[in-house]
Amino acid sequence: MNPFIKIRRDLHLIPELGFQEYKTQAYLLSYIENLSQERLSIKKWKTGLFVKVHGLNPRKTIGYRADIDGLPIVEETDLEFSSTHAEQMHACGHDFHMSIALGVLTHFVDNPIDDNILFIFQPAEEGPGGAEPMLKSDIMQEWKPDIIFALHIAPEYPVGSIALKEGLLFANTSELFIDLKGKGGHAAYPHLTNDMVIAACSLVGQLQTIISRNVNPLDSAVITIGKITSGTVQNIIAEKARLEGTIRTLSDDSMDKVKQRIDAVVKGIETSFECEAVIDYGAMYHQVYNDEEITKDFIQFMRTQTSINVIECQEAMTGEDFGYMLKEIPGLMFWLGVDSPYGLHHAKLNPKEEAIEVAINILTSYITFKGN
User: Are 196 and 241 in contact (CB under 8 A)?
Assistant: First the structure.
């Protein structure tokens, strides 16, 4: 078995949520500390890591980022190496991302290039967001790369393919939490209450009119309410309700407009249902914007690699906090084909492991090309 497939399976067993990746960090450290330390410098940052491979004759530093956290999902794959952590799963491929990064790191420990390479093992991509505070850390400021790369698995593309585009790749995203408080009471006396189940249901429908009637139809935006919590038992009218969701837009202006309309709609709910409402926009992720010249260079190089199928894709409404790093450091992110019938964040996601070696070869060849 390819050793990095074994690593992927080890990591798949121990998914951990954002800023709780203690076992994951320990596993990564144990592996990295067993490599030759001659050219390595390692620094912890919260539950993440910075690992610098010192170049032979450095002129610049090339960055590579891998996210390390899991999701609060009950795994349904029935794999022999399914998650051992209750209600937690690597359902977004971060186990792949880490094993690929370790493969690339191992290669350059054994085969150093002229330039420095900084590997960033980032916690909390799924929330509350690790990229922005990691970017602002003293370690990043000391070791800040001149160019940076990352990938994300893509279940919809076959193994042996990558997909990317110049410019906007992933959307701006924001969390959305809305708490409603009315007046509870007995189900037989609704006229004496302010029912927050009814208010929440009305609010969900009204939020969708923002997309259909307030966003330019030639633009794109999405509001998703993924979770509603309300009530205690069947014969008590609910006094409280909580809606949890996300907002996704292709421009900062659209994000501002959507939030303004959400504020207005929620105020209307307060008036019409005689309740109190609190909005929390939680964490916001900046769009992933690939540097045009670097992306052109990357695509041109990849098209010389006969085993790789390069697909120029459309932008997606996916959110990724790597966008904060690309906002400050030129670079790119690309999709890695892993050919799974189940998509990202699905309890049965099962990417093809052959893609791990493909990605390691892609990245080692391109970083060697850029760093010598």
Answer: yes
Query: In 10 A of CB 57, how many CB atoms?
Result: 9
| Nearest C-alpha neighbor of 148 from the set 369, 326, 364, 363 | 326
Q: Which residues are catalytic?
A: 67, 126
> In whole angstroms, what is the distance from residue 70 CA to residue 23 CA?
12
> Which 3 state secondary structure label does DSSP give 112?
coil
337 touches 160 (CB < 8 A): yes
And the tokens for 255? 């994000």
Contact criterion met (CB below 8 Å) for 237 and 195: yes
* Helices and strands in the chain: count of H runs, count of E runs: 10, 17
Q: Residue 39: enclosing H or E segment and its boundaries?
A: none
Kindly tell me the sign of the dihedral angle through the C-alpha atoms of 61, 37, 49, 107. Answer: positive
Do 300 and 343 meet the contact criterion of CB atoms below 8 Å apart?
A: no
Query: DSSP label at 134?
Result: H
pLDDT in tens, 131-182: 999 999 999 999 999 999 999 999 999 999 999 999 999 999 999 999 999 9
Cα–Cα dist 365/152, whole Å: 18
Contact 162, 365 (CB under 8 A): no
Which stretch of DSSP H or E encloses residue 332?
Answer: strand 331-337
Sorted by sequence, the CB contacts under 8 Å of residue 360 that are 6+ apart come out as: 4, 100, 103, 104, 107
Res 305 pLDDT > 90: no
The secondary structure element, H or E, covering residue 203 is helix 196-213
3-state helix, strand and coil shares in percent for the chain, rounded to the nearest 5: 35, 25, 40
Residues contacting 213, CB < 8 A, separation 6+? none
Token pair belonging to 103: 């493969």
User: Sign of the CA dihedral 51, 55, 58, 63?
Assistant: negative
Phi-psi group of 232: left, alpha or beta (phi > 0 → left; psi -120 to 50 → alpha; rest → beta): alpha
Q: Is the pTM of this model over 0.85?
A: yes
| Each residue's pLDDT tens digit, 249-274 | 999 899 999 999 999 999 999 999 99
